[in-house]
Amino acid sequence: MTGSGGVLPTLRTVAAMAALIGLVVLALGLFGSTADPNRVPNCGATPMLPGTSCADESGSFTYEAKMAEQRHTFEVADQRTTLGADVAAIGALVNVGVMVLLKWLG
């Protein structure tokens, strides 16, 4: 059961991978949460005003749509930060628990 093909070593590997994936998601969330959700959008190099629209090389959009998109991106980043931290912590705790069990079982 505790040999190289047992359940615990496999669980330890999965937990370590979960911790690493959680850290990546956490980093993506932290990176996305640094953006200012209330930053005034630009049309080219010109700041937009409420009620205006823009058509540039990336397409057409309104001030309100761009502001809603920025706020949504910020909210998603916050959720990623929480999810990443949770997954990393659970993966690390399971990994440590399995290491203790393997040492205890011997």
Structure overview:
With 106 residues, the protein is mainly alpha-helical. It has one domain (7-105). The protein has two helices and four strands. A hairpin with a 2-residue loop joins strand 1 and strand 2 (46-47). It is rod-shaped. The protein starts with 6 loop residues before the first helix and ends with a helix. The chain crosses the membrane at residues 12-31, 87-105. Keywords: Membrane, Transmembrane, Transmembrane helix.
Judging from the principal axes of the Cα atoms, what is the shape? rod-shaped
Could you give the order of the helices and strands?
Answer: HEEEEH
Radius of gyration: 22 Å
Strand line-up of the largest beta sheet: 1-2
How do the helices and strands line up, and which of them pair or pack?
Layout: H1 7-32, E1 42-43, E2 46-47, E3 53-56, E4 59-62, H2 63-105
Antiparallel strand pairs: 1-2, 3-4
Helix pairs in contact: 1-2
Name a few traits of the molecule.
mainly alpha, two-stranded antiparallel sheet, 2 helices, 11% strand
Brief description of this entry?
This protein has 106 residues and is mainly α. It has one domain.
